[in-house]
Amino acid sequence: MKKIIILGAGQVGYSLAEALNADGHDITVVDRNRQRLQVLKAELGVNVLVGFGAYPPVLEAAGARDAAMLIAVTDSDEVNMMACQVATTLFNVETRIARARARDYHQHPRLFGRDAVPVDMLISPEEIVTSQMQRLIEHPGALQVLDFADGRVSLVGVRAYHGGPLVGRELRNLRRVRPGVQTRVAAIFRKDRPVIPDGDTVIEADDEVFFVSSKKNIRAVTAELRHLEPSYHRVIIAGGGNIGRRLAEILAERYRVKIIERDPARARLLASQLPTEVLVLEGDGSDDRFLQEIDVGHADVLCAVTNDDQSNIFAGMLAKRRGVRKVICLINRPGYVDLVQSGTIDIAVSPQLATLGALLARVREGGTATVHTLRRGAAEAIETVVHGDSRTSQVVDRRIDELKLPEGTSIGALVREEEVIIPHHDTIIHAGDHAILFLTDRSQVAAVQRLFQPSPLFF
Question: Model-level pTM?
Answer without folding.
Answer: 0.86
